[in-house]
Write a structure and sequence with these properties.
- The structure holds 2 protein chains of 2 kinds.
- By secondary structure, chain A is of the alpha+beta class.
- Chain A is about 45% helix and about 20% strand.
- Chain A is built from 3 helices and 5 strands.
- In chain A, β3 (about 15) and β4 (about 20-25) form a beta hairpin.
- The mean pLDDT of chain A is about 85.
- Chain B is globular and about 85 Å long.
- By secondary structure, chain B is an alpha/beta fold.
- In chain B, strands 4, 14, 15, 16, 17, 18, 19, 20 and 21 form a 9-stranded mixed beta sheet that branches. Chain B has an 8-stranded parallel beta barrel with strand order 5-6-7-8-9-11-12-13, surrounded by 7 helices. Chain B has a two-stranded antiparallel ribbon with strand order 2-3.
- Chain B starts with 10 loop residues before the first strand and ends in a 14-residue tail after the last helix.
- Classes of the chains: A alpha+beta, B alpha/beta.
- The interface between A and B is medium-sized, with 30 and 20 residues.
Chain lengths: ~80, ~450
């Protein structure tokens, strides 16, 4: 799970992909998670951080995390590298 | 340490240019309370989903409608359209406000009688009145609106046999400039059939011709159609006076006023485009007042509008079951109320709101009901906030037709609650149980046992 190269993300959640010209918006939770993905954090680290800070249990977070990742893949913002 | 509230992470593509079919993005205000009662506590106490009807809103809407007509015309009478919502409590609120009853079947007629409506204040419409229904209505002096010649001859026959004088009106259909023209109810104006029916009644002499009625359409957005209809009925009334020296007691303009719901495919929301009661009243009463009707002998103006009087008072509350991704990346949200409960979802873009404050974030969504049926779509395309499993929602303006056209299909029908004018909720129709359905079923003895 790796962010595509050259993707620009602003502090306010504006994301630009120069390879396609597409722009996206992220909500604050999306910014935070994408930031951690960019830093190379693992899913376990991300889950641990979010569940300690926010009012969400691990099992509930997991499904929203996977949904978020699937949308990032759908928009070709992250490269799956063949991993599940 | 208090944890921060969690919102689902979201990424959305920005598309410049025209709005998509999901419409222009706008923040959805949550509906957290109904008549002062928190939505969460209503669901906790009465289950999910649950229909909630506001008595206050019914009375307020009725008064607004009555004022619109009564301030323009001296003799106004509303008749509550039972088919729109015939829950006893709902009918009783309208009757307390002064409405008569307008029924379209023997079942509805019996319901009105059982609720306690004076038979002379029941208007019996509809194409299907059995001999038994007509006998009851004639014997009790109810107002029978004749739909076709076969019915007229049944009544002529019954008047003779019962030695009673039926109180009758004819239903008239006509060209009011709208498409499609509703010509299936009653006798046509333009081809002379209506006049023919009136002549037969007058010549027969055994019936009291008390009124004229029309039902020009449903969800009418044009007030001018009512002006044209009123003009044509007044013309018939004047014809009766000229030819038979007979004055009718009332002209019944039927119902059909649009509510503020948005029809599917409409460009603007219904709340912006629907004519007000004042608009309808102006069109109808001005046609009466401009006619040659004598000011001292004006007929009573009866209105049977249902949808516009009850839609705003009804809410459907429920819970999100799940969120899914569709093949093209769109979100689908599954809620616990389907088209079996919300029949009007087939023709309205219902206004569905979260039951608590949410962020500005929304996502292109399709909202499905819980039925295992592809047609179970509550909203096809809507920008909807990020509700999670277990969150509550509120669907506005569902008071008309849902509690009469709902289906017992796949799931049972839930509680219907009315919040009274002091803010106290009452169950007015109990949730169905397996027993309540099974009590109507009979299984032949030879099917009683099996091994599976």
């Amino acid at each position: 799970m790796q962010l595509k190269k050259n993707i620009a993300i602003s502090d306010t959640g504006f994301l630009f992909d120069p390879s396609t010209g597409d722009s996206f918006t992220l909500n604050p939770m999306g910014i935070e998670i994408l930031g951690m993905i960019k830093e190379g954090k693992s899913q376990a680290e991300i889950t641990s951080h979010i569940t300690s800070m926010y009012d969400v249990v691990e099992s509930a977070f997991e499904r929203y995390f996977y949904d978020f990742i699937s949308m990032l893949k759908h928009h070709q913002i992250i490269e799956g590298n063949g991993e599940n | 340490m208090q944890k921060l509230p969690f919102e689902r992470p979201l990424v959305q593509k920005i598309s410049a240019g025209l709005p998509s079919k999901f419409g222009i993005q706008g923040k959805l205000e949550p509906i957290t309370h109904i008549d002062g009662i928190p939505v969460n506590s209503l669901i906790e106490e009465f289950g999910s989903p649950v229909f909630v009807i506001s008595e206050n809103t019914i009375r307020k809407t009725y008064k607004e409608a009555y004022r619109a007509f009564a301030s323009r015309y001296p003799k106004v009478q509303f008749a509550w359209s039972y088919k729109t919502n015939y829950l006893n409590a709902v009918c009783s609120v309208f009757h307390q406000e002064g409405s008569w009853a307008e029924v379209v079947s023997g079942f509805e007629y019996d319901k009105a009688i059982a609720i306690g409506v004076e038979p002379g204040h029941i208007i019996f419409n509809g194409p299907d009145k059995t001999i038994e229904d007509l006998t009851k209505a004639i014997s009790q002096g109810s107002l029978i609106h004749i739909d076709h010649f076969d019915e007229l001859y049944d009544i002529i026959d019954l008047a003779d046999r019962l030695e009673e004088r039926p109180q009758v009106a004819i239903r008239v259909n006509m060209d009011t400039g709208i498409y499609p023209q509703w010509d299936r109810f009653g006798f046509n104006y333009e081809n002379g059939e209506a006049w023919d029916a009136l002549n037969r009644i007058m010549v027969n002499g055994n019936m009291d011709l008390v009124g004229l009625h029309t039902h020009i359409g449903t969800y009418m957005m044009s007030t001018d159609a009512y002006r044209i209809a009123a003009t044509k009925l007044v013309d018939l009334a004047q014809g009766l006076m000229r030819k038979h020296k007979h004055a009718i007691s009332y002209i019944d303009m039927g119902g059909g006023f649009a509510s503020r719901n948005t029809l599917k495919g409409a460009y603007y929301p219904g709340s912006d485009t629907t004519p007000s009661f004042d608009d309808f009243a102006e069109a109808i009463t001005s046609a009466f007042m401009k006619s040659e009707l004598k000011p001292d002998d004006l007929p009573l103006l009866i209105l049977e509008t249902g949808r516009a009087l009850i839609d705003d008072a009804g809410y459907l509350l429920g819970t999100v079951i799940a969120n899914k991704r569709l093949a093209d990346g769109r979100r689908s949200t599954i809620i616990d109320a389907g088209v079996n409960l919300l029949f009007t979802a087939f023709w309205y873009e219902h206004d569905i709101r979260p039951a608590k404050a949410v962020s500005d974030q929304t996502e292109d969504s399709t909202i499905y009901g819980p039925l295992c049926m592809n047609i179970d779509v509550i909203r096809g395309n809507v920008l909807f906030p990020l509700l999670k499993k277990g969150d509550h929602y509120v669907i506005k303006r569902i008071g008309a037709y849902n509690n009469t056209q709902w289906l017992q299909f796949i799931t049972l029908r839930p509680n219907v609650v009315m919040i009274d004018t002091t803010g106290t909720p009452h169950i007015i129709r109990k949730a169905e149980t397996l027993d309540s359905l099974n009590q109507h079923e009979l299984t032949p003895g030879h099917l009683g046992q099996f091994n599976v």
